[in-house]
Design a protein that fits this description.
This protein is α/β, with parallel strands linked by helices. The chain is built from eight helices and twelve strands. The longest helix has 32 residues, at 324-355. The protein starts with a strand and ends with a helix.
Length: 356
Amino acid sequence: MEPVIRLPGAKCTLPFALCTALALAGCATPRYAPLAPSAKSAAPSTPAIDPALEDRILALDPEHVSDQDVRTTLVAGPTPRIILVHGGVIGTDLLMTSFGKFLTGMGYPERRIRDPADGEWSQQPYGSSERLAGEIAWHYEHDGVRPIVIGHSQGGIQAVKALYELNGAFNEKLEAWNAIADAPEPRLSIIDPLTGKERPVVGVSAALVAVVGAGGVALLAPPHWSMIERLHTIPNTVDEFTGYAINFDLISWTFPGSTSWVFEPNGTARVRNFLLPATYNHVFVPVTHSLAGDAEMRDWINAYVPDRDNGEAPGAAEGRAGNELFAADVWYSIKKHWALEAQRLIRARRSMSAAR
């Protein structure tokens, strides 16, 4: 486990009434039994990529992706689906909409964020976790690159729960979930786009999962009871996981000096823990859309690199900054895994082509 990161920053006060609302919102959702697997199907054909573009993508350094790299290279190539999962209180979908608009303002294609079934920016945290897990596998099969999942509060719990679904913790078999039809498909496997071979849905992994404010009061909601003992241990079904917490948060029960919020792997997942300042607000952490419209702030976010002194965000003294550390760190990880996933697909295609 990597060391906890403590950084200075932002502001806001917390309306305590929302703590109770968060605990009471939602109701349990029934689990469904997977259907019998269907016969093998042909692998969906992912879009062809121009060889010159492939070369440009392969030349990228995933640890240092610039704004120009995003807007002239990555956006033209394979782009992971980003699945946003909002919190459990009415209106938190609007907060995640703000975060989605931040991402598009930074150059991420809107069509790769909005839900292909209903056009929403995010999904609610009380739905079926089998659905979310099946979506992750389905998008990987159809896009050739693994999805990124970002969850806020109860949405963060749902994101980790989906990783356990993919790990087989709740059910040994899972159906692929057609994200366009918003319905399960009668098959328990996908065709792996990197190998062309059939593989079970169980065992598929996400590229990146990031959660903020997950845990605490939110675990009292009945749909999340199964995660009380599991939430802070991350299974192998994600390459990189980042858990963000606020240093004083009455909703997620994180307090100065406490380590109860810290996430750790139980295997191969790379797990980071990022402690946001006590001045951040649990409810409003995702509100970031204005940051992308501020040229100086956008430059600062694009230049941000974790684990180094990035200097104070521009405009902090004038009140222009807000939630910028969370936004910058997540955007860095998204750019990194966007490049890694595109490179992974290109290398696999070239390898399969050379083997023919």
